Structures are given as C-alpha cells and as structure tokens.
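Q: Convert this sequence to structure tokens.
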Amino acid sequence: MASIPMKTQNSLFLKTLRSIKDKPYEQGFSLPGAFYTDPGWMQTERDELFARDWFCVGRVEEVSQPGDYFAFDHVGEPILVVHGRDGEIRALSNVCRHRGTVLAEGSGNARKFLCPYHHWAYDTTGQLVNAPHLDSHGVFNLQQCRLPELKCEFWRGFIFVNLNPRAASLKKQLAPLDAVINDYHLEQMSLRYLAEETWDTNWKCLLENFMEGYHLTPLHKDTLHKVNPSRLCSHLQPGKRHFGYSVGFTTRLPDDRIGHPDLSDEQMDTCVMFAVPPGLTVGVGSDYSSFLCIRPESTGRVRVKMGLIFYGEDWSQQDVDNAVKLFQHTMAEDKQVLIRVQQGLGSRFHEPGPLAARDLEGTIWDFYQYLSRSLTPAKRSTKAPD
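A:
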C-alpha cells in the first residue's frame, strides 16, 4: 500500500470509514493496519481532528496560581497555557510576534515572558509590554500587539483548547457524559501525580488500549485483574462526543475511601472509563481517578501526559504512593505491549480481526464511529466535529 499515491490512499481510508458507519457491534472488526502506520493518514488526522476538535491539555491545578504556566507543542503549534495576573487562565500562541521565536518552555511561574532572541516581553495576559528600540517605528503600535488567544474551556477540572476559532462550545456537547459521571465530582479532586512520556506507538493504539476492558485480565493479571477484572466490564451508551465502559471492583473500598457523598453504593463500587476524543481518556473512581492527555508526534510516536487526581484531603503519603505505584506498573505493562502492537500493525500479513463482545471491546467500535463521523467529508463543516 505504500506505493499508492497519498490522495488515492486517503480515499481508500475514507471509504473504509464510511463503510462501517452505524453498523452494529456484532459486525465489528478492527481497522486495517495502515490506519496506524501510514504517514499521509496521520497528517489527515492531525489536520482534521487535532487541529479542528477540542483537545485536553491538562488540569487546572497545574496553573493554580497567577503566573503559573506550562508550554507544549500540539501538532506543530507551540501553545502556552498561563494563569494571568488578572486571574484568568488562557491558552496563547507561544510564538513571538517579532520574528517567530518560541517564547516559553516547560512549566513554572513568571511575571512576564521574555523572547530569548530580541527581548520582546509579554505579560501573563499575552499583551506586549516591551519591544526594545522600536519607539521610532512609523507604523508599529506596541499597545495593539499581543499574543493570539486560542479558544479555551474548562470542564470537570480539565483544560480544553481548540485551534479552530469557530468551534462550538464543548460543555454542551458533554452534557450526556455529565449525567453519567456527575456524582463523582472530578472537579473537586486534586492532582497529586503528573508525568509525561513518549510512547513508540500510534496515538489510536494508546487511546484504544485505555478504553477497552478485554485486556484487563490477560495483560494485567498481577495488577488490574485483581481489582477490576474483565468479567466485570459493562459497555456504556456512547454520545457524539464521548464513549466509555464501566468496570466493577472485586472488593469493596475501605470506608474512608468512599468518595463524594453524592455517590450511591453502586457508584462507589464502580469505575467509569470514558474518552473525550481525540485526546482525553479518564478512569473515574470514587476515591481517585486517572487520566491521559494524548498528543500524536508522528505515526509511531505519541506524547502522553498522565496523572492521578484524588478526592478528599485525608490521604497519607503512603496511600498516594501505593496508588502511583499501581498506576505506573499498569502503564508500563501497557507501554510494553503497545510497542509490539505497533510493530505487528506494520506487517504485510496483518488483517483486521473481529472485535470481542460489546462489554469488552464495544468502545473500540464507538471510537471508530467517532472517526467515521469526524473524518468522512459529509460531516465536515467550519465547526469542530460533534
């Protein structure tokens, strides 16, 4: 397939996505390997999903104080998330308005952002405050120069950004998901663990892995299987902007880890796994929850920000450390197998395989339906995909 012209190849990909639209779960097969290995298709996903749809960049706790910021690259676009001295959290272009230098790197706290090239300076709202030796310029007006501001919304403590200035609001689109996870109150949980890694796999492989329960018992037999085995998984009704499943616990949580008072007994004994594609996956527990923010770097490399958020203040460091250890061990198992998945998807002998029952891999089919809605031409518009 590598010798097929990119335009023709993309037409074949789109034809495949159109062919699976709205088909029942019982007819589900995995996508062909080229969906995960073809550079041309990767560029289409970057342009049509990650550059047009809402993507999660992290938690509000990362920029809790005025001056707090973190910088990152999103599909080639340098972005700066900063808590302004005026109290507002913004997503700004992280590119100097003079000659295009990237302004900030990493994370920290700052009163202003100084371009390392010619020392143009911007305050924490993005306003240019100093441009050395340009006082005599006949046209340039310093007061009218500021860093472009991107659309930014906050939902359940997560920060979402959109490169499309005409994108429809995300919050309304997530109302059906709110009805499912409202009582867990993710917005009241606190970030206590955060890490970033690059994995040698396709971004879709990582999202799919987090979002199916079929592998919990065979892959995580010494970790998650003991807590959340595959046999306790149950598929959830998907929405246009989310999909997910729930999984029960083998033993009841301790009384001091029951979570928010709004939770029912059933909710306290259930973990809800959901995705807001293309880039957020969350495992919701009553006591603490995990999340991944996914950003593709190339066909076979994905950048992932992973974290744990905890409900309540009564957590010993030992208990937090134990939760982190379990999460790290689980992620390491996933990372190792996804490297092998990516290798296998590039094989000339690979063929799509049947998906397991709806409760185990129905979410994979839900994800494919999202891709079909978002990427087939009939559904494209000037707004972000639903």
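Residues 379-386 have pLDDT under 50 and may be disordered.
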